[in-house]
Amino acid sequence: MDRINNKTLLSILCAPGDNTLSVVNPATGELLGHIPTQTEAEIEQAISLAEEAGNSWKQKTAKERALVLQRWYRLVMDNQNDLARLMTLEQGKPLAEAKGEVAYGASFIEWFAEEAKRACGDTIPGHTGDRRLLTIKQPVGVVGAITPWNFPLAMITRKAAPALAAGCSFVCKPANQTPLTAYAVVELAYQAGIPKDLLQLVIHQSPEVVGRVLCASETVRKLSFTGSTRVGRLLARDCAPTIKRMSLELGGNAPFVVFDDADIDAAVSGALASKFRNAGQTCVCANRFYIHDDVYDAFMDKFIAAVDQLTLGNGLDESVFVGPVIEASAKQRLQRLVERTVEQGSRVVKGGQPQDGLFVEPTILADVEQHMDIVQEEIFGPVAPVLRFSSDEQLIAMANDTIYGLAAYFYSRDISRIWRVAEALDYGMVGINEGVMSTEVAPFGGVKQSGLGREGAREGIEEYLETKYLCFGGIQ
Ligand SMILES: NC(=O)C1=CN([C@@H]2O[C@H](COP(=O)(O)OP(=O)(O)OC[C@H]3O[C@@H](n4cnc5c(N)ncnc54)[C@H](OP(=O)(O)O)[C@@H]3O)[C@@H](O)[C@H]2O)C=CC1
Ligand SMILES: O=C(O)CCCC(=O)O
């Protein structure tokens, strides 16, 4: 704990006051501490300092930037256990998942340290004999970012690492519920040699204030946001006057489909991971289950038995698979959603019992129909509505019947069907016989109202680069 908790956290935490924010453990309600917030003027100042720091950072060679990022990667991994514990304390996810998130978050730093050296332009066959055409890649400049509480570390590194690798500076507002992990990972970046002004966190009691300052700033050339579609729309509106580049990772409504030729055991284990990791609070979590009539009973029996084995509790307890939800309003929203779905004609076949604190029992709802609200809403909690289908055509129509287009999952062993369905699903990411597909090497992102742009993979760094075209004339 030395490197992070004693030194860093004690220097971040402060006495309660007007300009502070309290951080609470969602599993116990215990107060973890207070952190200072910034004023609007201080956030503006942070942007100016970031711009200045970016001027020298972008002059470094890609290899120099890569070496600093590699050191950051190493420090994050060396502190994996401490970071994970801190994350579980403020976010609630089970410790094993938190360790997984630290490694996942670190993998973006490692990946983009490598990609920094591959930000190549092109030479273009000329359109006349006396000209030579080429492109170079340059950093977009100051990047503003706003990240959510469900992945307090990885959503920062998935944006900061490609931005810094490209030569940009980075000013980020972490979620107000989970700032401690954010401060700890950024402190490790400073220890690795990333200049303090280049990578900064800004916090305010009101997220709207930070959003307004970042969006209105002419210095901030790009905004990268992960969070709800509702807030994504507001930010897109507020970025319009300055015509900022935007990356938006927004909400999802993932269908999880089990065809009649599926391996049912594999589908059940994929369903558990996809639906219940992080207590169902990820934008790629399975949101609605479509099970073919012919395998419905077989799937449901096994799914209910498997969910029965999931332990609910404080994520610090190693036997726990499902932690608390993030706050009281999330729990109330989930309870209301289950009640409404039952009123609309569905049945609770597993879970649904009242729990203390912020815990929500893993719940399965049967007899759900396409017209019910739960099928259109992002659930963001450990509740699994199950529907039936009887033909591929009907399934594709139902799966695509949403404003969202982030992730979809299906289980089948028929290769023709696999291609047909994968191509027909209107989603940015499709898991085929697989319930968890996130990795730094593949492009993460959605279509429709799930967002713009891709994170990770070779596409990830492009989001932070401008392409400049150079036309050389007068060649003899
Ligand atoms: N990855 C995803 O797709 C995520 C989706 N969600 C969805 O959003 C729902 C609500 O979760 P919530 O955390 O409230 O998500 P939000 O979209 O409200 O929050 C995400 C981030 O945006 C900030 N934010 C909130 N309002 C504004 C604003 N007006 N201007 C600028 N920044 C803002 C938040 O700050 P603060 O923490 O201070 O509120 C947080 O840092 C979830 O139930 C889920 O459906 C949520 C998180 C992640
Ligand atoms: O829910 C999110 O905000 C991001 C999904 C996490 C991942 O799988 O990358």
What would your notes on this structure say?
The protein has 476 residues and is an alpha/beta fold. It folds into 2 domains: 7-250 and 450-470, 3-Layer(aba) Sandwich (Aldehyde Dehydrogenase, Chain A, domain 1), CATH 3.40.605.10; 254-432, 3-Layer(aba) Sandwich (Aldehyde Dehydrogenase, Chain A, domain 2), CATH 3.40.309. Helices cover 41% and strands 19% of the residues. The strands form 4 sheets. Strands 12-13-14-11-10-15-16 form a 7-stranded mixed β-sheet, sandwiched between helices. A 6-stranded mixed β-sheet has the order 7-6-5-8-9-17, with helices on both faces. A 3-stranded antiparallel β-sheet has the order 3-4-18, with no helix packed on it. Helix 1 (2-12) packs across helix 7, helix 3 (62-78) crosses helix 7 and helix 5 runs parallel beside helix 6 (154-166). The protein starts with a helix and ends with a strand. Bound molecules: NADPH dihydro-nicotinamide-adenine-dinucleotide phosphate and glutaric acid. Residues 148, 150-151, 155, 226, 282-284, 438, 444 line the site of glutaric acid (GUA). Glutaric acid (GUA) binds next to loops. Residues 19-469 form the Aldehyde dehydrogenase domain.
